[in-house]
Amino acid sequence: ATDPNGMIFAGTRGGGVYYSEDVGSTWNSMNEGLTNQFVYALTVTDEGLIFAGTMGGGVFGWEVSSQSWIALNNGIEMPWINCLASNDQGDVFAGTFEGGGVYRSMDNGNSWVLINNGLTTTYVASLTIGPDQTIYAGTFGGGVFRSTDNGDTWEHKSAGIEVPYILSLTSRSAGIVYAGTDFGGGVYRSTDHGDT
Q: What is the pTM of this model?
């Protein structure tokens, strides 16, 4: 993840979070207060707020004033976070392991609400938000789901995907989505907002 000033953040499996201020030439840890250092996801809002998703410890937010992480799990019942994403309004989304689905925070991580209406597979391995603010959720076994109303409802959008185990998603142009799959399925591309 990168912040608006170009600082790069990297999450590690057991080593917490590292940052680089020189385009990755050198790295420093930033783990004060991070009680779970299995960081599988990071996102930075447009305002520069940093969130870390952990395996078993839920979501942490970086508090600039204390230069430490604080747990932000009010409302999260499944603390195994696979992925994080944030939109232009600063809303933060967290995808979780089986049984959790997607949580949304509209108050800088202070509270979370489960938003699984229409999401029939709740093992969410990846999230991405397109420039038009369309949200895509990649699930493990259920393919891709799309939301055009900030996560309030989800539609299954996996036509043409033969391997529905989605590990990664990205959308950098409106309507164009790439999905990376597991089990040798390769990469799929949609040019119509995931319809095909």
A: 0.95
